């Protein structure tokens, strides 16, 4: 756990900020009828073969559901500080996939981003939140870890510590 109040405050603000980013993304996906990942994934460049298989009429609705509701759940988890280790892990996975999808090697999304862009920075911040147990800082993880049903389950204990 962080020792200084400044570090605790900084980790708390980073957690809230990333939570807001995920919630805002979800607001454009979950609550917009007909939103689909297919439009974006059909225009990938470097890893087009990988991402184009997710644009078919059978798989695209499933992936769209997972992405939109994943954004919502990750955002809510980060905002509330509950199961931050789990949500941040999924958030890192999403950020790395988005980084790959935006890549026109060696540039990411445009000529101003050479190999590294905000997706990598966000993934690193999410990793920091995991390592520093950011859900324990003014979050529900500090309450949840003391509940009997969580302390008796090794996965839930890990997720909230």
Would you kindly provide a written description of the structure presented here, covering whatever features stand out?
The protein has 161 residues and is mostly helical. The protein has one domain. It contains 9 helices and 3 strands. The protein has a 3-stranded antiparallel β-sheet with strand order 1-2-3. The protein is globular. The chain starts with a helix and ends with a helix.
Put the structure in a nutshell.
The chain is mainly alpha-helical and 161 residues long.
Q: Give the oligomeric state.
A: single chain
Question: Fraction of residues in helices?
Answer: 55-70%
E-strand count: 3
Describe the sheet with the most strands: 3 strands, antiparallel
**What count of structural domains?**
1
Radius of gyration: 17 Å
Portion of residues in beta strands equals 5-15%
SSE topology string: HHHHHEEEHHHH
Number of helices: 9
Mean pLDDT: 93
Query: Largest sheet, order of strands side by side?
Result: 1-2-3
Instruction: Quickly give the structural class.
Output: mainly alpha
Q: End-to-end distance, in Å?
A: 10 Å
Low-confidence stretches: none
Q: What is the molecular shape?
A: globular
């Amino acid at each position: 756990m962080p020792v200084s109040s400044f570090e605790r405050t900084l980790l708390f603000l980073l957690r809230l900020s990333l939570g807001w980013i995920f919630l805002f993304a979800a607001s454009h996906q979950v609550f917009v009828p007909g939103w689909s990942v297919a439009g974006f994934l059909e225009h990938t460049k470097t890893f087009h073969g990988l991402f184009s298989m997710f644009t078919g009429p059978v798989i695209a609705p499933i992936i769209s559901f997972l992405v939109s509701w994943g954004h919502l759940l990750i955002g809510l988890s980060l905002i509330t500080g509950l199961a931050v280790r789990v949500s941040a892990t999924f958030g890192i996975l999403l950020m790395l996939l988005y980084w790959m999808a935006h890549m026109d090697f060696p540039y990411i999304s445009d000529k101003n981003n050479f190999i590294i862009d905000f997706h990598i920075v966000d993934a690193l911040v999410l990793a920091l939140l995991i390592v520093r147990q950011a859900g324990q800082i003014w979050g529900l993880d500090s309450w949840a870890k003391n509940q009997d049903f969580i302390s008796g389950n090794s996965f839930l204990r890990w997720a909230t510590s």
